Amino acid sequence: MDRAIMEGDPHAVLEGMLIGAYAVGASQGFLYVRTEYPIAVKNLKRAIDQARELGLLGQNILGTGFDFDVQINRGAGAFVCGESTALFSSIEGKAGEPRAKYIRSVERGLWGRPTVLNNVETLSNIPVIIEKGGDWYAHIGPANSPGTKAFSLVGKVKNVGLVEVPRGVPLSRIVEDIGGGVPGKDHFKAVQTGGPSGGCIPYSLKDVAVDFDSLTKIGSMMGSGGMIVMDDSDCVVDVARYFLHFLEEESCGKCLPCRLGLKGMVEFLDRFSRGEGSVEELDELVSLGEAIKDGALCALGGSAPNPVLTTIQYFRDEYLAHIIDKRCPAGVCKSLITYSIDKDKCTGCGLCVRNCPQGCITGETKTPHSINGEACVRCGMCLESCKFGAINVA
Amino acid sequence: MSDIKEKTDGLVSLVIDGQPVQAKEDWTVLETARHHHIHIPTLCYHEAVQANGGCRLCVVEAKEGNWSKIVVSCLYPVKEGLQISTSTAKVNNVRRWILEMLLAECPASKEIRALAEAYGVNSTRFKIDRPTEQCLLCGLCVRVCEEVVGVRAISFGSRGVNKQVTTPYMVPNNACVACGSCVTVCPTGAMQARLNMVRGNVSERTGHGHAH
Question: Which B-chain residues 160-199 have CB contacts (< 8 A) with chain A?
Answer without folding.
Answer: 160-163
